[in-house]
Amino acid sequence: MADLANGAGRTVRNEPASGADRAVPNEPASGAGRAVPNEPASGADRAARSEPASGAGRTVRKDVARNRARLLDAADKLVADSGLDLSLNELAKRAGVGVGTVYRHFADKEAVLSALFEHRLDAIADVFRQAQDFDDPIEGLRHVLFTLGEMQAGDRALFQVMASTKSPEQRAMARDRLQPLARELVERAKATGRLRPEFAPTDIPLLLWVSMSVNDYSGGVRPDLWRRYIELALDGFAAQDQPRQRLTVTPLTPQEMEDAIAGWNRP
Amino acid sequence: MADLANGAGRTVRNEPASGADRAVPNEPASGAGRAVPNEPASGADRAARSEPASGAGRTVRKDVARNRARLLDAADKLVADSGLDLSLNELAKRAGVGVGTVYRHFADKEAVLSALFEHRLDAIADVFRQAQDFDDPIEGLRHVLFTLGEMQAGDRALFQVMASTKSPEQRAMARDRLQPLARELVERAKATGRLRPEFAPTDIPLLLWVSMSVNDYSGGVRPDLWRRYIELALDGFAAQDQPRQRLTVTPLTPQEMEDAIAGWNRP
DNA sequence: GATGAAGCGGATAGTTGATATCCACTTCAG
DNA sequence: CTGAAGTGGATATCAACTATCCGCTTCATC
Asked: What share of chain B is helix, strand, coil (3-state, %, to 5)?
């Protein structure tokens, strides 16, 4: 998985000096405007923190950057293999920092998820863009489904983080970026005549959801079983005259079935 | 949905008089063997309460029977539309009884779920048995998938209650009853030559799981979208020469897609 | 129709697992 | 060296749940 926090400095905390800049760690006791470093404004671009802050950037302390990186990294991993129910305590522990530090960087859980949002969105959009490079748009479609399915198998949050963001702005953003890509891909694919005309762009997210669900069911026993059902769905979506594709994954054996169910209970 | 608690007296509390019969509501304070009415033994057949207790049955008070019925009924409904995370407080409220009464009838949450287990198992096995009456086993298979899918759309717990029971005995019981039925159905269906040979009995529960998942995704917006993907899978599983079935459900519109996602957040 | 064992309701104690705060201490940039 | 900024983690707080206890009610029985 791509490394969220390191690399380009874009994730480094680095705000424009303008306005009510905060980061007041510990004024003695009382005080009116506590002015925590978190977002006080309920405003729009919570996660939009990342811009390089063109002007007047105060120098960023090394440890601050490092901690933020660690936090994002840990959040990324945590969410990837346990879904969206991360606890900020757990996050702190995994990141090797104190809880206080978490709250210095993020107002609350939602803010953490917001920060992960763009990362996922970029990754998904990328896959769609790669699909455009295939000469055969059907291959492009397969690329999207299998690549995103694969990604999702290692990252339960890939879609959840997008589906469950509370900010309508972010949802709109996801829609605006992904919808045209999906539509264009599906149109080209249908133009080949090798796809049933009923296939629709919205079938793509649904199929990916199916991948995820199958993985939830049996991922512990057979991490690639999702492929079977995607291949199947693709055969179902193929035009009448198209030959069946080979199913690359065998069904669960009864024994595996039992193991999968038995494993369901503990998270 | 079938009424779980009323009808035949099989759900009435009614234990053999033998052994350490309990039901001690309130001995003054201390006392060694508190002997609550719940299961003290960690043993096997927790839910097997229901036998008519052939001999020496003490007469059952009307209110006891009524309350137990109410509880089972409420539990059934609660679990059907919110999944397995029922709280026993909530259960009591919905059943119109006090929490104390819940604990008089069931040792804990697990015991409640156990009591619901057989009910679901019976229902599922029934559908498989109905499938045997179809002359065309493929129709039988469709019957199973669509009928159980339908049931599941109105009962989130239909499979969960089976999948998540902590008692291995119950799991074994489910397996022993359902597996042969599924295998026989699939064998007959494949014998027609109209099904891909790759189709396996374990594909059935997986497809039902897919139904459930699709329903989780979009059930609020389109309670029957799951059919689309089952139809699709069936087309994928049809032998090469079989004609495509008509898809009876249109895909989500982009607008519905958004609504579905937006609706995801609150439970 | 009187009686007491059995059952009931629901306040409440206890538990868990999370969020969020505070402040003594550490670290870094200048 | 210094102090502003940042940090860790004990702790307060909260919400939701499980489970208990006991005064009161109901029912089967006589």
From this structure: 60, 0, 40
C-beta atoms surrounding B65 within 10 Å: 17
pLDDT in tens, B87-125: 999 999 999 999 999 999 999 999 999 999 988 999 999
With contacts defined as CB-CB under 8 Å, which chain B residues touch A179?
254
Instruction: For chain A, report the end-to-end CA distance as a whole number of angstroms.
Output: 22
| Residue B50 CB coordination number (10 Å) | 16
Lookup: tokens for A153: 């198998």
Q: What is the identity of the amino acid at A74?
A: A
Q: Work out the angle at residue B81's Cα, subtended by the Cα atoms of residues B76 and B83, and round it to the nearest 5 degrees.
A: 80
What is the distance between the alpha carbons of residues A218 and A216, in angstroms, rounded to a whole number? Answer: 6
Determine which of B184, B198, B204, B224 to mutate to test the interface with A (most A C-beta atoms within 10 Å): B198
DSSP symbol at A50: G
Taking a C-beta distance cutoff of 8 angstroms, is the pair A73, A3 a contact? yes
Which chain A residues are closer than 8 Å to B201 by Cβ? Answer: 254
CB neighbour class for B240 (10 Å; exposed up to 12, middle 13-18, buried from 19): exposed
| Residues B206, B203: Cα–Cα separation, whole Å | 5
